[in-house]
Amino acid sequence: MTRGYRSQLAALLKRDLKVALRRRSDVINPLLFLFMVISLFPVAIGPGPDILARIAPGVIWVAALLASLLGLERLFRDDYQDGTLEQLVLLPCPLPLAVLAKILVHWLLTGLPLVLIAPLLALLLNLPLSALPVLLITLLLGTPVLSAVGAVGAALTVSLQRGGAVLSLLVLPLFIPLLIFATAAVESAVFGAPVFGQLLLLASFSILTLTLTPFAVAAAVKVSVN
């Protein structure tokens, strides 16, 4: 990456962060949703520590997946409506690089806070402390995938009037492999089984996704603005 591209990427990151932080509800709502879902599970199934520990990996990951969907519809929607998305296509830097900046901003505002509050969520669900490092690793590897794959769906549905339902139908099936690998790794850690294989598969999936999705999103953006 040349110096000029790096400066443009930094400018795009700064601009998108400023715009996103003006809509504080987009940052706060996913966290509130996450806490509500996690706190309701012990109430619904009872306080049995064995049951909570057994379902904790799946509950945390499903809640994280659903929380990431809350702000995806607006990832490109506001830029599309005010014409900024067309200007993004005309920038001298490669469009996949500009798209990568928006994906990174989405992760910083949704995925990173989730990683930071994961110990508290694990405590609420009585997850063993021995499994907490594995949970954090799966979230660090997996939450960028949620933002990247979600960006593909957001770009494809940006021109639709009510694209939220279509967006969910598009991206939810793509999240299934991530959900399987991530929860399997944490469950293995809970029972003291080896986790290297699951983490390696999750890392490979994450690298492949983050490498290819910016190009897919860029192609979808060009289709949407033309």
Structural class estimated from helices and strands: mainly alpha
Estimated radius of gyration: 18 Å
Mean pLDDT, nearest integer?
83
Dominant shape: globular
Largest sheet: none
- The span between the termini is 28 Å
Percent in helix? over 70%
Q: Would you count the extended β strands for me?
A: 0
What is the H-and-E element order? Answer: HHHHHHHHHH
Q: How many domains, in number, for the residues?
A: 1
Q: Give the strand content.
A: under 5%
Report the uncertain regions.
Answer: none
Number of helices: 10
Summarize this entry quickly.
With 226 residues, the chain is an all-alpha fold. The protein contains ten helices and no strands.
Written overview of the protein:
The chain is mainly alpha-helical and 226 residues long. It has one domain (3-225). 81% of the residues lie in helices and 0% in strands. The chain has helices at residues 3-22, 24-45, 49-69, 77-81, 84-89, 95-124, 132-156, 164-171, 176-190, 196-225. The chain is globular and about 55 Å long. It starts with a helix and ends with a helix. 41% of the residues are buried. Pfam families: CcmB. The chain crosses the membrane at residues 27-45, 51-72, 104-125, 131-158, 165-186, 198-221. It is found in: Cell inner membrane.
